[in-house]
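Subject: Holliday junction branch migration complex subunit RuvA structure
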Amino acid sequence: MYEYIKGTVEYTGPEFVVIENNDIGYQILTPNPYVFSSKKGIQTIIYTYQHVREDIIALYGFPTVEEKLLFRKLIGVSGIGPKGALAILAFGEPSQVIRAIENEDEKFLVKFPGVGKKTARQMILDLKGKLHDVLGDEEQHLPKENIKSISSDKVIGESLEEALLALSALGYSDRELKKIAPKLQDKEMTTDQYIKQALQMLMM
C-alpha cells in the first residue's frame, strides 16, 4: 500500500495526474487534477490509495490527508464506489460533506453527481458520528507546502490567480473566467477552494 508519492508533476488530464518518481510515471486518479496543473515540473506530494479488484488495480490520489481519509470513508458506503467518491470530492469541500452528513442534510447531499435520495440516506446512516477523525488536527499531518496562509490580501490574490491559471490550462476561456472572477475576489480561500467554487459557477 502506498501512503503517498513525492515527485514531479509531469502531466494532468481530465481525470488523472501523472507524477514522476525515480524515472517512473504514476498515473493517479484524482478528484481535481487541475489543482496540480499549475505545478507542472514542480515536486509535490500526493496522498494515495490503491484500490484492487478482480478486474482492475487503480491508484487514487489527493492533495491532502483529509480528502484521502474522507474518500476511504465514502467508498465504504453501500452504493458508492471509487468513481462516485471522486465525484463527491470534486464538487464539495470535505468539511461541507461532513457537515451535511452530521446535520442529516439530504437536500445538500443529493446535489452531488450520482447521489440520489437513497444513497444520501445511506451516507448518513453509515457515516454520521464516524467522521471525527477526518476533521481532526489534520494540519500536523500535512507537509508545509500544502498549508497556505490566507491572512493577507497579497496571498489571497495569489491564490485566486493560481486558480484562474489552472482553469485556463484546462481549456476555460478568458471570457468565462473574467465573468466569474469578480464573484470570487472578496472571498478568503485557498487555491483549491477557489477552483472548486469556480467550477461550480462555470457549470451552472
